[in-house]
């Protein structure tokens, strides 16, 4: 049975706590972009993907590509929260040889489909996977999460053209549009609006939603493909650093190095939120 919106909110809160658990192991990382995207990642894994632990390498599996690889803490936390990897793997974050390095490594962690981190490659890789799945007669779907600061990379638009040309309607791209990138607001660094109009011009079906609102995310996931015969682009308006009030919406959240007190305050806030959601789920 599909989880309720409330259960998904609880799962995402638990995943945020796991991001903070990695920071307890090593107090530095790309936290802001992980937390803007984590509601999307949680909902995609929990409601849309067909995945089991023994099936993580099955040829006909659904695939998740984190094109903006620096958001890796979100994927690691969700893989652990959903039970696809053991949670204690997260405690090696920051150590040499860790299976959860700063950018995802497909040779180290099951569930990671490609080594990303150099921005602009995930969509083209996903196109190959989606086309390959179709040629193999599999019903696999491919989900991509990109950043809005990643969009200026030209290779994305080669991928966008390929996906539309091949009518890859089992491919869905979520743009984590938090309005910020590494050095400032995306509109100042390299404006790419209207993102929807650009994907639309390439032949995609597009929609926009609040990417930190579970009800909206689930509604769109249930509707995919947005238009049969077209790949889907979902422009998800989010808040960078969502879930840690002291860094929400700040450029500084991009690579956060919290003091012990800042980390403790973030953990306390997150655990309060989790307890509140647990009570609501129990009462529902
Ligand atoms: C090809 C490439 N150029 C530059 C970088 C450096 N870089 C890392 S994160 C980042 C900003 C990405 O912004 P966005 O996609 O909006 O992600 P967010 O910061 O919002 O998580 C940049 C430019 C990179 N990783 N790859
Ligand atoms: Mg961004």
CATH superfamily: Thiamin diphosphate (ThDP)-binding fold, Pyr/PP domains
Average pLDDT reading: 97
* CATH class group: Alpha Beta
Instruction: Estimate the global geometry from the Cα principal axes.
Output: globular
Q: What is the tally of helical segments?
A: 9
- Rg from Cα: 18 Å
Based on the coordinates given, report the CATH architecture.
Answer: 3-Layer(aba) Sandwich
% residues in beta strands: 5-15%
CATH-assigned fold name: Rossmann fold
Q: How far apart, in Å, are the first and last alpha carbons?
A: 16 Å
Number of domains: 1
Write a concise synopsis of the structure shown:
The protein is of the alpha/beta class and 284 residues long.
Overview of this structure, please?
By secondary structure, the protein is an alpha/beta fold. The chain has a single domain, classed as Rossmann fold. The protein is 43% helix and 12% strand. It has 9 helices and 7 strands. Strands 1-2-3-7-6 form a 5-stranded parallel beta sheet, sandwiched between helices. β2, α5 (154-165) and β3 (171-177) form a beta-alpha-beta unit. The radius of gyration is 18 Å and the shape is globular. The mean pLDDT is 97. The protein binds thiamine diphosphate and magnesium ion (MG).
Helix-strand blueprint:
Layout: H1 5-25, H2 31-48, E1 63-66, H3 72-81, H4 122-135, E2 142-147, H5 154-165, E3 171-177, E4 180-181, E5 184-185, H6 186-190, H7 195-201, E6 205-210, H8 214-223, E7 232-237, H9 260-283
Parallel strand pairs: 1-2, 2-3, 3-7, 6-7
Antiparallel strand pairs: 4-5
Helix pairs in contact: 1-2, 1-3, 1-9, 2-3, 2-8, 4-5
The chain binds thiamine diphosphate and magnesium ion.
Thiamine diphosphate is lined by residues 33, 68, 70-71, 117-120, 147-150, 178, 180-182, 186, 240, 254.
